[in-house]
Design brief:
The complex is a heterodimer. By secondary structure, chain A is an all-alpha fold. Chain A has one domain. Chain A contains 16 helices and two strands. Chain B has a domain of about 200 residues. Chain B has eleven helices and two strands, in the order H-H-H-H-E-E-H-H-H-H-H-H-H. In chain B, strands 1-2 form a two-stranded antiparallel sheet. Chain B is globular, with a radius of gyration of 19 Å. The chains are: A mainly alpha, B mainly alpha.
Chain lengths: ~350, ~290
């Protein structure tokens, strides 16, 4: 008598929280085990994927699920990162959970302020205002240089490794654990949120505002809520980003950062949380790949340094021309194809 | 009083360039309902081509002409090859496509033209002119900039109001379906619109290059301020966009005089404030959306 996997899976299907939680625990266990096998650099990259996945998941909720475009999420990450850096500058040994919570709160507050303005805007107007936000906010760090230390930025002390892990435990591995844990908690919370009435009203507003109003949904309030949820994720991503980079400076939060988040969700597939992870993996791995290409072919630095951005741009253009639904969309339709193919074969066998 | 005058004139000159960018955006928006986020990057690219021409010994005016022609060609190619296939997709996809083009051009420019910052010569001296014995806060190049933008505006107005081509372009923007029934090649009109807009952008690129040195990101600010001007003008109205661009130029010059770091931030505040009061811009005649 084996375990009846099918009935367990069925029971999980009725409890999204349990299913998402189980999936997260499996991923966490895998990362935990694998992080001992790989080099410090790979751990650092895993942490990077978690950083971008967290922020991109937030953008997925806003842009993919709620249909509001934001070209300024890098600025909201900056809010989180500067909160983290300033707090750590004030008290170096604050508990990391507290620092992250404060960064999330600060970014959510900024998101609330901005969401109220954004909920009145549509399409190109929203794109324009968020783009202006991405350009303008880092400039405040230059203007108030006495607080934000201007162009040089604020150095960030890496999170200290707890003593019980032993002396040989690397900082990179600890950073990977912390970042992956934060990303997984974010993902589970968002996945459950999207399956609740919140997710349904976010989608309803995206698909048809008039119909949403007729169904009793307050459109403006829903859009502001999407902005706040999304900004909170960007704040957490920003906080992790500060730890990950070890320095918070205006140069790190250029328009390119905002566009990179957009690339992540476009490549992964709009509206899919797993897609955000695919996109984040792409964002981290591509510069590595082009870097080793540039060294292998001895390319001059003006080419090697700009190769990732050129490929990001080309991928965005090609994705829109050929695969507007991204990696996750492609996988889903492949899965759908496989499943229907299988079902057809089975019916044929049963009837034949 | 003198400072006030100097700043106003300086702001109007800057504003005329923003107005050109704004007008280019409005031209494309009216024809295809697309915001071309690659506008600035395309202008940057054509200006680099002009710089290369000057490096190879061509005169300023030949390079000027080359920049404009490259602008026309680049605009037409982008519309025909990239934008046309996604025209029927959601507007969101087109926005992402132009953003991708923006990233691509900004990354490819240093690969082709080298990574270091280049200087671009002005057409005329950039020192103040003298009228009799009084030094005026206006250089020959300022006058040239202003004249170029005004000339381009005049030509475009004539094109749209007085020529057959302009009438056909207006018709295709107004109602593509009906125009097609009347025998207008709408696709060709859209390509022409993009070519004209990119040419106008290329003009702006060459005009800014001498004062802000040539580098891959040098058009970013001009683009965002031009975009702000276009939105102030309501995106639909060409004259609104020109007024919006000039106004942004003057206001930002004053802000920049008071605090140089806050120029872009002031742009954001102005943009947000005005859109809060009128979500469709200052000069738009469209009704606001109500659900």
């Amino acid at each position: 008598m084996g375990i009846r996997w099918g009935s367990i899976w069925q029971a999980l299907g009725k409890r999204p929280l349990a299913r998402h939680g189980l999936l997260a625990v499996i991923v966490a266990a895998a990362v935990l085990v694998l992080s001992y096998q790989v080099s410090a650099y790979t751990n650092y990259e895993v942490a990077g994927v978690a950083v971008f996945a967290t922020a991109a998941a937030g953008l997925t909720v806003l842009t993919g699920v709620n249909g509001q475009i934001s070209l300024g999420h890098g600025a909201l990450m900056a809010v989180g990162a500067y909160t983290t850096s300033l707090l750590l500058e004030w008290q170096t040994n604050l508990p990391i959970v507290l620092v992250m919570a404060a960064s999330v709160a600060a970014a959510a507050a900024a998101g609330l302020l901005f969401g109220v303005a954004a909920s009145r805007l549509r399409g190109p107007y929203l794109a324009g205002v968020t783009l202006a936000l991405a350009l303008a906010l880092p400039q405040l760090a230059l203007h108030f240089a006495s607080i934000f230390r201007g162009e040089q930025g604020i150095p960030v002390t890496p999170p200290s490794v707890p003593g019980w892990l032993g002396a040989s435990f690397s900082g990179e591995q600890w950073l990977a654990w912390v970042s992956v844990a934060a990303a997984l908690v974010t993902m589970v919370l968002l996945a459950n949120l999207l399956r609740s009435w919140v997710g349904r009203s976010l989608r309803a507003v995206r698909d048809d505002e008039v119909a949403a109003v007729l169904a009793g949904i307050h459109v403006g309030r829903t859009q502001v809520m999407a902005f706040v949820i999304s900004s909170a994720c960007a704040g957490l991503g920003g906080s992790l980003f500060a730890y990950w980079l070890g320095l918070t400076a205006p140069g790190g939060f250029s328009v390119t950062l905002s566009l990179q988040l957009l690339i992540a969700i476009v490549i992964g597939g709009m509206g899919s949380l797993v897609g955000a992870v695919w996109g984040a993996i792409f964002l981290i791995l591509l510069p590595d790949l082009t870097g080793s290409l540039a060294t292998a072919f001895n390319l001059p630095s003006s080419i090697g340094n700009n190769l990732p951005l050129a490929i990001f741009g080309a991928v965005l253009v090609l994705a829109m021309l050929a695969f507007p639904r991204g990696v996750q969309g492609g996988l889903t339709s492949l899965g759908g194809f496989g499943r229907s193919h299988w079902r057809q074969r089975r019916t044929r066998r049963e009837s034949g | 009083m003198h400072t006030l005058l100097v700043l106003t004139v300086e702001g109007l000159v800057q504003g005329s360039i923003y107005a050109a960018v704004a007008l280019a955006l409005v031209l494309i928006w009216r024809a295809t309902k697309v915001i071309n986020f690659a506008q600035g990057a395309m202008a940057m690219f054509t200006t680099y081509v002009a710089w290369l021409a000057i490096q190879h010994g061509l005169s300023y005016w030949a390079a000027f002409g080359i920049a404009l022609i490259c602008g026309f060609a680049l605009g037409a190619v982008v519309e025909r090859v990239l934008v046309r296939p996604v025209e029927t997709a959601s507007p969101f996809n087109v926005v992402i496509l132009t953003l991708g083009l923006y990233l691509f051009l900004e990354a490819i420019a240093p690969m082709i033209f080298g990574g270091s910052v280049r200087s671009f010569p002005p057409a005329f001296a950039i020192t103040g002119l003298e009228l009799g014995k009084v030094q005026v806060p206006l250089s020959g190049f300022d006058l040239f900039t202003f004249g170029c933008v005004a000339g381009a505006l005049l030509l475009l107005t004539l094109l749209f109001k007085r020529t057959n081509l302009g009438l056909r372009m207006r018709a295709s923007a107004f109602s593509p379906e009906v125009s097609r029934l009347l025998g207008i090649r709408v696709g060709r009109m859209l390509t022409t619109g993009w070519a004209l807009a990119a040419g106008l952008g290329a003009l702006a690129g060459v005009l800014i290059a001498p004062t802000s040195l040539l580098q891959p990101t040098y058009m970013d600010e001009a683009f965002i301020f031009g975009f702000t001007g276009a939105i102030l003008g309501g995106l639909e109205s060409p004259w609104g966009s020109v007024v919006g661009g000039l106004a942004i130029g003057v206001v930002l010059t004053f802000v920049g005089y008071l605090s140089p770091d806050l120029e872009t931030f002031a742009g954001l505040i102005i943009l947000t404030a005005i859109l809060m009061l009128r979500p469709r811009g200052l000069f738009s005649r469209q009704r606001e959306r109500r659900v």
